Amino acid sequence: MFYWVMKHVLVGPVLRLAYRPWIRGAENVPENGPAILASNHLAVIDSFILPLLLPRQVKFLGKSDYFTGSGLKGRLVAGFMRGVGTIPVDRSGGKASEAALRTGLRVLAEGDLFGIYPEGTRSPDGRLYRAKTGVARMALESGAPVIPVAMVGTNVAQPVGRVVPKFMPLGAIVGEPLDFSRYKGMEEDRFVLRAVADEIQYAILRLSGQEYVDMYAATAKARLAAGGDAAPAAGSAPGGKPLPPPAES
Question: What's the whole-model pTM score?
Answer without folding.
Answer: 0.88
